[in-house]
């Protein structure tokens, strides 16, 4: 059908009116869009901190939201005069290094002993234990009488997820003397990178298992003192 110029003009005006009519309020309330708050994504748990269901006591995954990424296990450049296989605990900076070849090391975040209950010096890893019993020394029981049921005389605390030594313990000796200090696991994620324990060196359970699997009995250990700790016990 032919539409002349006047017809086209009338058609366009009618169409415009129709479009405009569609934009006119009908009197109904149009819901407004409420801004949606941005939701923080859940941190992704790396494979190295996944659950370990095949352990004697199944270990849950690490809650990485409670462990700053700077404390996560990693491989780093670490030029040092210490021989390969040595364990170096950098107490002031809350890191443990397992010296590898070619100027490299595996670095772990650790918790260390609080002021007055820390130790530093040179020794060796005498031996390791899986899921050890915890036997608080008599000096600790004297300070905390509630630990008496777990004293050496009473056989200590059985192994388990709530045992303070966690999944593995590495026993530090100086010569033939047991220093009473340990490198051990902990389920208390938030203590990594802090000074909270009674002298021992705490690691995430997944990390201490990794360390124990790679450190040989008899390996040297160097614990660097923290100058801010006024009563540090130096061996």
From TrEMBL:
Q: Where is the active site?
A: 184, 200
Query: What does the entry list under GO cellular component?
Result: extracellular region
Per the record's keyword annotation, is Lipoprotein included, yes or no? Answer: yes
Question: Matching CDD domains, A to Z?
Answer: YkuD_like
Spell out the family assignment given in the record's similarity comment.
Belongs to the YkuD family.
Q: In which pathway does it act?
A: Cell wall biogenesis; peptidoglycan biosynthesis
**Pfam families in the cross-refs:** YkuD
* Domain of life of the source: Bacteria
A single Gene Ontology biological process assigned to it is: peptidoglycan-protein cross-linking
Q: List UniProt keywords, sorted A-Z.
A: Cell shape, Cell wall biogenesis/degradation, Glycosyltransferase, Hydrolase, Lipoprotein, Peptidoglycan synthesis, Signal, Transferase
The keyword GTP-binding is annotated on this UniProt entry = no
Q: Where is the signal peptide?
A: 1-21
In Swiss-Prot or TrEMBL terms, this protein is called Lipoprotein-anchoring transpeptidase ErfK/SrfK
Q: Name one GO molecular function term.
A: peptidoglycan L,D-transpeptidase activity
